[in-house]
Amino acid sequence: PGIEITEVVDRRNANGFLEVQVSGYNHNRKRKVFDYRVEWLDQDGMVVPTHLTTWIPQSAMPKTNFSFRVISPTAQASNFRIETRANKTSS
Description:
Blueprint: E1 3-12, E2 18-26, E3 32-41, E4 56-60, E5 65-71, E6 79-86
């Protein structure tokens, strides 16, 4: 058992930036820590250059739901790609 992503919702906010909310569930009996990062894509599918594309740690308590939200750095972002990886400090 592990982390399951159950829903990804996106919308354009009033300022024209893309907002993404990721929801999931930790099936494990221990707290899980993982990292995520978002690559923002323009209308042609090209990566929007930004220094904000960094790995961010996320914690999920045992047998509970979790969520996180990210906002694009520019209104030119029209799509996104989310990557996850195991956090090396995770138990």
